[in-house]
Amino acid sequence: MKVSTIMADLERKHPGESEYLQAVQEVLESIEEVYNLHPEFEKAKIVERMVEPDRIFTFRVTWVDDNGEIQTNLGYRIQFNSAIGPYKGGIRFHKAVNPSMLKFLGFEQTFKNALTTLPMGGAKGGSDFDPVGKSDAEIMRFCQAFMWELWNNIGPDTDVPAGDVGVGGREIGYMYGMYKKLARQYNTGVLTGKGMTWGGSLIRPEATGFGALYFVEHMLAKAGKSIKGAKVAISGFGNVAWGAATKATELGATVIAISGPDGVVYNPEGMNAEKLAYMLELRASNRNIVAPFAEKFPDATFIPGKKAWSIKCDIALPCAFQNELNGDDAAELLANGTWCAAEVSNMGCTPEAIATFQNAGILFAPGKAVNAGGVATSGLEMTQNAMHISWSAAEVDSKLHYIMESIHAACVKYGAQEDGYINYVKGANIAGFMKVAQAMLEQGIV
Ligand code: GLU
Question: How far, rounded to the nearest angstrom, does the alpha carbon of residue 205 sit from its chain's CA centroid?
Fold first, then answer.
């Protein structure tokens, strides 16, 4: 396999799909060496088959807004790879959603899910529907219209959607309500991230952020460092950022910055219970701005137009969107003494940022390892649904701990270099790839 040949072919077939091509390139570069040691992979054309989704559903979603106006959005579900289990992955509602974005996410999801130790294939879905400023009734009507099209292509043993950017517990509730009406199926395992009274798993809302911090703890321990007393900058104020801020605070770190599309909040005294609860209020307000945080808490200062990465910190945790931390941001962080960066968002750093961190020899880990606790706990939710039981928070949390420890160990196994540096990007990509490739090989040419 030659990465340049495969990439040239993909660029020709999918011109302009920049996020998708970026995600594929990163994985192929990581696995090239190992892949070429396995002629059986080459013979079965594993890479050529793995980089294309199994299938893509594209559909029109028409709904009526509060003014009685008819609105039309595009909806998608990308079933990427089912080698190790039913399709699994979130749904993203964001105005910039397009096939490239969802293909990158579905591709990443395939490897991430493989890392979780659980039997889940990779998928992603979403819509260019923009939830910002929408009323609750509009969100409900949109979710219902979206599910009207999607319901026939999903199921507890075929494809299990969940939340992502713009889709949380409320949206999952509205989608499930419509699903059961249309499908006449009452198995709640068809979606994860559900409410606690109807099949949701304890710890699922916290899982992405908590899992990320468990991973960071392992990464730091391996490097002989501790998070206690560290200053942590976090982008975003959604569910994932909230989970990360909560656990970082619990572990003795100071969350010195949170940010939104409008700017950054400098928060020198760190978080407390009231501030953490307010992060969720901000998210639920649907306004997508972080400035009100500094109005409510006078010890914090809002700096308009700036990113979280402009604040001096030890650990940087992008928790918002892909490519939110670029090469210049990475250079600024390094100049300010940052010694660890971990992507909690999917592909949160640009390739230039990753190269900057790795060349400087600081700790860096990619989203598909760091944020896998979210989908892993979705997997645990599916298990509980299938068994018709629910586990205690402590039970789910201990399983999440174990999974994040296993993911960290897999990254070290495949990413440790001779000079002692651990290339977590390479480690995560190879570990995920080997599992999916082996399964594809054993299942023949399909
Ligand atoms: N959207 C999350 C992710 O990127 C969670 C997916 C899920 O729980 O299925 O992994």
Answer: 13
Do the domains 3-187 and 207-361 sit in the same CATH topology, yes or no?
yes
Q: How far is the CA of 279 from the centre of ligand 1 (A)?
A: 20
What confidence score (pLDDT) does residue 35 get? 94
Domain ranges of the chain: 3-187, 207-361
Instruction: List C-alpha distances in Å: 69 to 95, 130, 141, 287.
Output: 18, 16, 13, 21
Q: Does the structure show a pLDDT above 90 at 227?
A: yes
Alpha carbons 260 and 255: distance in angstroms, whole number = 15
Confirm whether 426 is a catalytic residue: no
pLDDT value for 43: 96
Atom of ligand 1 nearest to the CA of 89: 9
Q: Per-residue confidence at 1, pLDDT binned at 50, 70, 90?
A: confident
Please check whether the domain covering 207-361 is classified as CATH 3.40.50.720: yes
**Which secondary structure element, helix H or strand E, spans residue 177, and what is its range?**
helix 169-183
Q: Could you give the 3-state DSSP secondary structure of residue 98?
A: coil
Pairing of strands 231-234, 363-365: unpaired
Which residues, other chains included, contact 32 with Cβ-Cβ below 8 Å and sequence gap of 6+? 1, 3
CATH architecture of structural domain 3-187: 3-Layer(aba) Sandwich (3.40)
Band of pLDDT at residue 286, cut at 50, 70 and 90: confident
Task: Convert the pLDDT of each residue in 34-86 to its tens digit.
Answer: 999 999 999 999 999 999 999 999 999 999 999 999 999 999 999 999 999 99
Q: How far apart are CA 231 and CA 242, in angstroms?
A: 16
pTM, entire model? 0.97
Q: From the candidates 88, 103, 112, 124, which is the catalytic residue?
A: 124
